[in-house]
Design brief:
single chain; alpha+beta; Alpha-Beta Plaits; four-stranded antiparallel beta sheet; 7 helices; 19% helix
């Protein structure tokens, strides 16, 4: 295993940013044989210290190993029942936009979309399925693999985040994400939420409302779906056999989007 310790001269105090410990954070990267991160870890070992800019450096070294995907004590996830989700309901999207004050500029191709509704039609039967798509919080996230600064990182509980203080706006993560779940901030951002810092020239995506999760609450989209929506979303610890979500996954068929890519998403869907 290798770990990349990222330092920033700034700290915003937000759990969703990654700098809440005073600007220093350790990002784990698996060096298991055959893993995508293994090659990056080997390269980082050769270049033990690489200075990117004043106040920003990367250092790779072998220390305490982070938990492998199958050994996590907690794995937060979301289960979505597409048979309950309807095209006319956007409670989850509205809740996300409100929670993080995501305001568009009438430019659909570039406006922020941390969660979006997608309609799928079966050409043979004509059956239409509507479902929300957001960051899938993969156990093996491609966005983390390709990030050159460690700005894209994964918490021990499986939530994938972006440290905007060291994001250089290269957009590699956006290109690497097979779910189209990441956005690039093209505009100046006003009225930011303290729990969701944003900034022009950086990448961003769904945080699974980590600020809520760390307080023992439910993500805004799931909460809205259960109160004003169709009760199609469920949140919980996938690794806890006693949790409602784990019991549901064990009892009823569910699927991951593009499971063939072996990214092991933390978001699962019923009825697709």
């Amino acid at each position: 295993m290798s770990q990349v310790e990222s330092h920033s001269s700034r700290s915003c105090g937000s759990s969703s940013c990654g700098c809440e410990t005073g600007g220093s954070r350790t990002v784990a990267a698996s060096n298991a044989p055959g893993s995508r991160r293994g090659l990056l870890g080997a390269a980082a070992t050769v270049f033990a210290s690489f200075i990117l800019a004043p106040g920003i450096s990367l250092r790779a070294f072998a220390e305490e190993a982070a938990p492998a995907p199958g050994a996590r004590k907690v794995r937060w996830g979301i289960l979505i029942d597409s048979t309950k989700c309807t095209p006319d309901c956007d409670a989850c999207v509205t809740a996300c936009n409100t929670e993080f004050n995501l305001v568009g500029h009438d430019r659909p191709r570039t406006d922020p979309q941390w969660i979006r509704k997608v309609t799928i039609k079966d050409e043979s039967s004509g059956h239409v399925t509507s479902l929300p798509v957001m960051c899938q919080h993969c156990a093996e996230p491609p966005c983390v693999d390709v990030c050159p600064t460690g700005a894209s990182f994964q918490r021990p509980d499986g939530i994938v985040l972006i440290d905007r203080h060291i994001c250089i706006g290269c957009r590699y993560c956006i290109m690497a994400c097979p779910y189209g779940a990441r956005n690039f901030v093209n505009e100046l951002v006003d009225n930011q939420r303290p729990w969701g810092p944003r900034g022009k020239g950086t990448a961003e995506a769904c945080t699974m409302c980590v600020h809520r999760v760390d307080e023992g609450r439910t993500p805004a989209c799931v909460e809205a779906c259960s109160t004003t929506g169709n009760k199609a979303m469920m949140f919980g610890d996938l690794n806890d056999p006693e949790s409602d979500i784990a019991k549901r996954v064990a009892s009823f068929p569910s699927a991951q989007i593009r499971a063939d890519l072996r990214t092991d998403p933390g978001v699962r869907y019923e009825g697709i």
